[in-house]
Write a structure and sequence with these properties.
The chain is of the alpha+beta class. 20% of the residues lie in helices and 30% in strands. The mean pLDDT is 88.
Length: 162
């Protein structure tokens, strides 16, 4: 005959207590993780924009038009240019007024004196100087542009100079 409160009773309850403690611990950890996720600010959505570009080989001019989409901060832009698969030695430091490898006085969002936003309907132009390598755009050249906004590629396009 067994007496109440013996060691045999304690052994029967131990696994149950262990399971209850593990479930409570798992619920606590899940609650802390969920609270941390809810407290974090959601990331800002990336802007979207439709961009068109044109190249004028007679003047070595590149024109980039913001067709539609979000307004863009020119200070957050960068432009990478290749001509026939060769990156320009000097890339335009957007925005700028005078820079190595480019004719002074770009327009629109490429100009340092621009408005604070580049909006739909506005066009920016810049001219490659002969001191850049390659030093110009010839008819038939393939010009590729990559427009980057806040370190994210916003648009990529390739144009054959006419």
């Amino acid at each position: 005959m067994r007496r109440a409160g013996t060691c045999d009773d304690a052994r029967g309850i131990s696994p149950l207590i262990g399971v209850v403690l593990l479930v409570a611990l798992a619920i606590g950890i899940a609650g802390v993780a969920a609270g941390g996720l809810l407290a974090a600010d959601p990331p800002e959505p990336r802007p979207t924009a439709i961009i068109e570009a044109e190249v004028e080989p007679a003047t070595d001019t590149i024109s980039v038009r913001h067709v539609r989409g979000d307004a863009l901060d020119p200070a957050a832009l960068s432009l990478q240019v290749t001509v026939d698969g060769t990156e320009l030695d000097e890339q335009p430091p957007v925005p700028f007024f005078s820079a190595d490898g480019f004719a002074p006085g770009p327009t629109g969002p490429f100009n340092a004196a621009t408005d604070t936003e580049w909006t739909a309907g506005e066009t920016g132009t810049l001219r490659i100087a002969s001191t850049n390598d390659p030093g110009g755009i010839d008819s038939g050249d393939q010009v590729a542009l990559t427009l980057v906004y806040d370190e994210h590629v916003l648009a990529e396009t390739a144009i054959t100079a006419g």
